[in-house]
Design brief:
Mean pLDDT: 95
Oligomer: single chain
Keywords: Lyase
Protein name: dTDP-glucose 4,6-dehydratase
Distance between the termini: 29 Å
Strand content: 15-25%
Number of helices: 11
Structural class: alpha/beta
CATH architecture: 3-Layer(aba) Sandwich
Pfam family, one: Epimerase
CATH class: Alpha Beta
Number of strands: 12
CATH topology: Rossmann fold
InterPro entries: Epimerase_deHydtase, NAD(P)-bd_dom_sf, NAD(P)-dependent_oxidoreduct
Shape: globular
GO molecular function, one term: aldehyde dehydrogenase (NAD+) activity
């Protein structure tokens, strides 16, 4: 099988390429520029130059493949860059979905749990949990644009597209070249952070999510069936404590209280106002998201996709080792 993959330089996309080739499949990756070949070390991936605004490249990639995994996206957790986020996460997804429908190719679209209802400590959310005023996500640019992208896929399904949508939780693991979510490991490891965010996440291993995503090609159905690919539900305090152990740094003392959160959000927004550029690391949207429990139930994926998850300790061990050897032992980081 020949699979066209977008987002091949990202954590999930790069892992998907490696697992596809390990299973004997041929891969094609959409790349904007000539890539740093270290990102594709050991792979026989064919490169197709273009981006999500290049309709001709997308059409070619889809037409010459048997299936498509769309994992590319723009992640900005803040109030700004909405137009740019929509161009990538909504319009780019629409172009992919339209091409897949035109050439009758199965599409696996990578969404995010951030488009779904928020869970709680008592009741993790699943695909069917209704979104209410109490459990809705923070409507930042990322959430709005990714939700719009899912809408584009479902609109094409109504017109005959064969598609499955997967929603990963918070991923960590090897092959985080940029890094993306692995930045949390670096930040907790390099400087002491006495106060952890008060909320929580569903931590999953990017290798498990990649396997679930690939399984969705054959086993995920064709009618826009949606699957949560999450993992172990933990508080950020627990997660940062475990990260600190592995990074040989000081663990946080406690979760941040409401007053600390309010101050942090205001400071981040004030910096954005003064500098003219919103910080992607600290703003009121991120602060609000950090107090919520993004806890999810992957039972549907475990039943229908044979999705399996490894223990949090193994994920943190492997992700820490990879980040330390690729991002903390030298100056230059591949982009």
């Amino acid at each position: 099988m020949r699979v066209f993959v977008t987002g091949g330089t990202g954590l999930l996309g790069n892992t998907v390429l490696r697992q596809l080739e390990a299973a004997g499949h041929e891969t094609v990756a959409l790349v904007r520029d000539v890539p740093d070949l270290r990102l594709f070390d050991g792979l026989s991936t064919h490169f197709l130059r273009g981006d999500l605004s290049d309709v001709d490249a997308i059409q070619r990639g889809v037409a010459e493949s048997d299936a498509v995994i769309h994992s590319a996206g723009l992640i900005h957790l803040g109030w700004t860059r909405l137009r740019e986020s929509m161009q990538v996460n909504r319009d780019g997804t629409a172009a992919i979905a339209q091409a897949c429908r035109r050439y009758d190719r199965k599409l696996v679209h990578v969404g995010t749990v951030d488009t779904l209802a928020i869970g709680s400590r008592a009741h993790p959310a699943n695909e069917a949990t209704p979104i209410t005023a109490e459990n809705r996500q923070v409507p930042c640019s990322y959430v709005q644009s990714k939700r719009a992208g899912v809408g584009e896929v479902l609109a094409q399904v109504e017109q005959g597209l064969r598609a499955t949508i997967v929603h990963p939780g918070f991923m960590l693991g090897p092959w985080d070249w940029k890094p993306s979510s692995g930045r949390m490991l670096i930040e907790v490891g390099r400087s002491w952070r006495p106060l952890a965010p008060p909320g929580g996440c569903s931590l999953c291993d990017s290798r498990d999510v990649a396997a679930g995503t690939i399984a969705a090609i054959e086993r995920g159905g064709d009618q826009g069936r949606q699957f949560i690919l999450a993992g172990e539900n933990v508080t950020y305090f627990q997660l940062w404590t475990e990260i600190a152990k592995r990074m040989k740094s000081r663990a946080p003392l406690m979760p941040t209280g409401p007053a600390g959160l309010w101050i942090a959000g205001k400071l981040g927004d004030a910096f954005s106002l003064v500098s003219g550029k919103e910080s992607g690391d600290l703003n009121s949207a991120i602060v609000e998201m950090s107090r919520m429990f993004h806890w999810y139930d992957s039972s549907r994926a475990k039943t229908e996709l044979d999705y399996t998850t490894r223990h949090l300790g193994e994920t943190l061990d492997d992700a820490t080792m990879w980040i330390q050897s690729h991002h903390m032992s030298r100056q230059r980081i591949p982009a």
